[in-house]
Write a structure and sequence with these properties.
The complex is a heterodimer of chains A (253) and B (515).
Chain A: E1 3-8, E2 11-13, E3 35-37, H1 39-54, E4 59-68, H2 73-82, E5 86-91, H3 99-113, E6 117-121, H4 132-140, E7 144-154, E8 157-164, E9 167-174, E10 177-181, E11 191-192, H5 193-201, E12 204-207, H6 240-249
Parallel strand pairs in A: 1-4, 1-6, 4-5, 5-12, 6-10, 7-10
Antiparallel strand pairs in A: 2-3, 7-8, 8-9
Chain B: H1 28-31, H2 47-57, E1 63-65, H3 70-73, E2 86-88, H4 93-106, E3 110-113, E4 130-133, E5 140-144, E6 149-153, H5 158-167, H6 184-190, H7 197-200, H8 203-206, E7 207-213, E8 219-221, H9 236-239, E9 248-255, E10 262-270, H10 273-287, E11 291-298, H11 299-309, E12 321-329, H12 332-348, E13 354-357, H13 361-372, H14 374-379, E14 383-390, H15 398-409, E15 422-429, E16 435-442, H16 447-453, H17 456-463, H18 488-501
Parallel strand pairs in B: 2-4, 3-4
Antiparallel strand pairs in B: 1-2, 5-6, 6-9, 7-8, 7-9, 10-12, 10-13, 11-12, 11-15, 14-16, 15-16
Classes of the chains: A alpha/beta (253), B alpha+beta (515).
Bound molecules: flavin-adenine dinucleotide (FAD).
Residues 15, 76, 111-119, 122-123, 134, 154, 176-178, 182-183, 185-187, 189-190, 192-194, 243-244, 248-249, 375, 471-472, 475, 508 of chain B line the site of flavin-adenine dinucleotide (FAD).
Chain lengths: 253, 515
């Protein structure tokens, strides 16, 4: 048995950047804002690299794919520099692509690459959908293990542990399968200098949705984007007595 | 938007003072009784003085007495402790003026205090001087988004100022590890250098105007100065780096540059100090206008940070030296390309052995934390003797080697063995500015270690034509060593200025300059 792993990676506003809603209230401001790889995708990539490193000869190929604007190439170069072997950019321009369309595109890529293990982030931090992995599993008819906090390979069987309220839950499945990653699965590595140079020479194929016979259509309409109401500022008290007084006033005690 | 937990990917910690778990810091007046004795001409504080101050301050919280003064009496390194029984925290410049006028008329000595992060014992009293903290003077006054001129009270915390500027697309031209605690007024009073000096220059250039109160209560104000103003003496310069010796800064006007939209950070492993210098020259050539920081660190400093953060170093193998390079520019593609080409060339020429580049903001902050946590890591075993020096680049690191050798010769050092007083002498700093931080990390402060280090280190610096204080100032620590860097005439002129503005010597007495 050998693994052909597919890792989808999304270009999103860097998680450390505070997003600002645009003037037209149609979305968040993207001009002059730093973009990076979605942290959960980064974790998915890291896991695939770890599987390769700890199971000699098991992994045939790690293929990274990004669906997004031309700029998403940067994210793919990062993935290649971290250790992915090959990559595909599905250039959709500035169009926002909903999870179902993403899953349909990914299905085509899975077929093209003949992948048998897909590791992807449980969600992207921009739209927080948490749907793509599940939809892809549905379209492919493959078993899925979501929110992985531990992944173990035993022969052709993979067991995935997920954190649940009050404990953990372990799922087992045979290949092919889909795993979505949770936060505590691993800690992504840094990119090493020589690998940045090497990444420039690794394959990056560019496709359009048309090349894959996919029509992107929107099923959702954004009416308005608004910031949550601001929380009233706190008050400082000078003494314990005053604190108790204030708590009584708001009937907290 | 999904909110990731704050502690994901190990972000920076706030600047913690070294732990307070063990016994209190010995009194400076005890530790250094051979170096300093109380000046009897100063008046002893009494109840009627306190009543007077209460009348000025009005609200009770601005006046702290007795044991509650401890946090203000001790310094950040837990090396110095004063015996002040009174901390005053005025809310207006006028209150500062009334307080100083009274102290001046009554011969009551005072110590101006900002964020109390100074590293030379300048911000704490030695005996019972009154501490005047400007922490409650903390309003941002104005910001002009066209010129970039930012005006604020002296007690605004540096990070607060920088965050405010960030929201407006600008940056404070100075940054340092203590930014979460130190004040804008404090950094001006010490003329701090820090991590952005390479790019934006010293505060002597960026500060446009100041508001300050002189000992006699006079309020000096040049807050409305323009960038170009050649009308006689540039008086504000006297306060920049004066360390509270002639007046209290209450307001700062400073010119701020646009914040770069594209920032990259790389951490490199380098095999020798000679190579570090070569990489520096190359980085100036190839990165030119986008180079914004060039920091170097030795292996021992990184080992300590690893212990302190409880993390593995981001570079797998060990190297004698590490270099952190930051670029800041306005075009990411252009900057990436430049940095990557530069780094490829360095690897090819074998100047650099290994390296990594941050791919996102959290990695970028993490890489910085391996530089910015050194001050905290260096004190974690008990304490640190800090020497912040300027030297010609060639000799910069030799001082660390010379100090380490000297300590070794006396059998005082061991990285692991807890029975030796010294952990190690480590070196790091703003190589781009010719500035070395020599930190002698100790398990406890002791006279025997100090006497091996001083005046040896100061003599060494003088012989190699350096400065005994690149950026931290003189304060109490270096009060007897000014002569190693300044000549007699310079010292005489400084004393004359001090005497002119502070004839009774009430401002920060017992420190590097006396009236
Ligand atoms: C973790 C750490 C990292 C640091 N990194 C750097 C660095 O990279 N570069 C660098 O240059 N320094 C560095 N420093 C030291 C630096 O000197 C201080 O952090 C800072 O400049 C002091 O600001 P403060 O507000 O805490 O002043 P304080 O410590 O309160 O005071 C410092 C001196 O200024 C005087 N003073 C303070 N406020 C006023 C005022 N309003 N008017 C008149 N006098 C005043 C005090 O009397 C004292 O003499 C670092 C310190 C720490 C703890």
């Amino acid at each position: 048995m050998s693994l052909k792993i597919l890792v989808p990676v999304k270009r999103v506003i860097d998680f450390a950047v505070k997003p600002i809603i645009n003037k037209a209230q149609t979305g968040v401001e993207t001009k002059g804002v730093k973009f990076s790889m979605n942290p959960f995708c980064d974790i998915a990539l890291e896991e695939s690299l770890k599987i390769r490193e700890s199971n000699k000869g098991l992994v045939d190929e790690i293929h990274a794919v990004s669906i997004g604007p031309t700029k998403a190439q940067d994210i793919l170069r990062t993935a290649l520099a971290k250790g992915a072997d090959t990559s595909t950019l599905v250039d959709v321009g500035d169009e926002e692509v909903e999870p179902l369309a993403v899953a349909k595109i990914l299905k085509k890529i899975v077929e093209k690459q003949q992948s048998n293990l897909i590791i992807l982030g449980k969600q992207a931090i921009d739209d927080d959908s948490n749907q793509t992995g599940q939809m892809l599993a549905g379209l492919l008819g493959w078993p899925q293990a979501t929110n992985a906090s531990k992944v173990e390979i035993n022969g052709d069987e993979i067991s995935v542990t997920r954190e649940i309220d009050g404990g953990s839950d372990t799922l087992k499945a045979k290949l092919p399968m889909i795993i979505t990653t949770d936060l505590r699965l691993n800690e992504p590595r840094y990119v090493k200098l020589p690998n940045i140079m090497k990444a420039k020479k690794k394959p990056l194929e560019k496709l359009s949705p048309k090349d894959l016979d996919i029509e992107i259509s929107k099923r959702l309409q954004t009416l308005k984007v608004q910031a949550p109401p601001e929380r009233p500022a706190g008050v400082k008290v000078e003494s314990v007595d005053e604190l108790i007084e204030k708590l009584k006033q708001v009937k907290a005690i | 938007m999904f909110k990731l937990p704050k502690n994901l990917f190990r972000p920076l910690r706030p600047v913690f003072r070294p732990t307070r778990l063990y016994s209190s810091v010995p009194l400076t007046a005890e530790t250094y009784k051979d170096k300093v004795s109380i000046n009897d001409k100063f008046k002893k504080l009494n109840d009627s003085d306190i009543e007077f101050f209460k009348g000025i301050l009005k609200d009770e919280s601005g006046l702290i007495t007795g044991d509650d003064c401890l946090g203000y009496n001790e310094d950040w390194m837990r090396k110095y402790r004063g015996q002040s029984q009174l901390v005053l925290k005025p809310r207006t410049t006028e209150q500062v003026s009334m307080i100083l006028k009274y102290c001046n008329a009554n011969n009551l000595p005072v110590v101006p205090q900002g964020g109390n992060t100074g590293l030379v014992g300048g911000s704490n009293p030695i005996f019972d001087e009154i501490i005047i903290s400007v922490a409650n003077l903390n309003n941002i006054r104005s910001f002009d988004p066209v010129s970039g001129i930012f005006k604020c009270d002296a007690g605004v915390i540096l990070e607060t100022a920088d965050n405010y500027l960030a929201d407006n697309g600008y940056i404070f031209p100075l940054d340092l590890g203590a930014k979460g605690s130190c004040h804008v007024g404090g950094v001006v009073a010490t003329n701090a250098g820090g991590l952005r000096l390479l790019r934006y220059g010293s505060l002597h250039g960026t500060v446009l105007g100041l508001e300050a109160v002189l000992p006699d209560g006079t309020i000096y104000n040049s807050m409305n100065s323009l960038r170009k103003d050649n009308t006689g003496f540039d008086l504000k310069q006297l306060f920049i780096g004066s360390e509270g010796s002639i007046g209290i800064i209450t307001g700062v006007s400073i010119l701020c540059p646009i914040r770069s939209s594209s920032v990259n950070v790389a951490l490199l492993g380098v095999s020798s100090y000679e190579m570090v210098q070569k990489v520096f020259i190359e980085s100036k050539k190839e990165l030119g206008e986008i180079l914004s920081a060039f920091e170097f660190m030795d292996l021992n400093s990184q080992k300590l940070v690893g212990q302190y953060l409880k993390l593995d170093h981001p570079l797998e193998d060990e190297y004698p030296f590490y270099v952190l390079i930051e670029t800041s520019g306005s075009n990411k593609d252009h900057d990436d390309e430049k940095l990557e080409t530069f780094l490829a060339n360095q690897m090819e020429a074998e100047l650099v052995n290994d390296g990594i580049i941050a791919q996102d903001e959290s990695q970028l902050r993490n890489l910085w934390s391996w530089r910015e946590s050194i001050p905290e890591a260096s004190t974690m075993n008990g304490g640190v003797y800090k020497y912040d020096v300027s030297l010609p680049l060639d000799d910069l690191y030799s001082l660390v080697e010379a100090s380490s050798e000297r300590l070794r010769g006396e059998g005082l050092v061991d990285f692991e063995d807890g029975s030796k007083p010294v952990v190690e002498a480590i070196g790091y700093g703003h190589l781009g500015d010719g500035n070395l931080h020599l930190n002698v990390c100790v398990r406890e402060y002791s006279k025997s270690v100090e006497s091996v280090l001083e005046p040896f280190i100061y003599q060494w610096i003088q012989e190699h034509k350096g400065s005994i204080s690149a950026e931290h100032g003189l304060g109490f620590q270096k009060k007897n060593y000014v002569g190693y860097t300044k000549n007699d005439i310079e010292i005489k002129l400084m004393k004359e200025i001090k005497h002119h503005y502070d004839p009774h010597g009430i401002m920060n007495p017992y420190k590097y300059i006396t009236a």
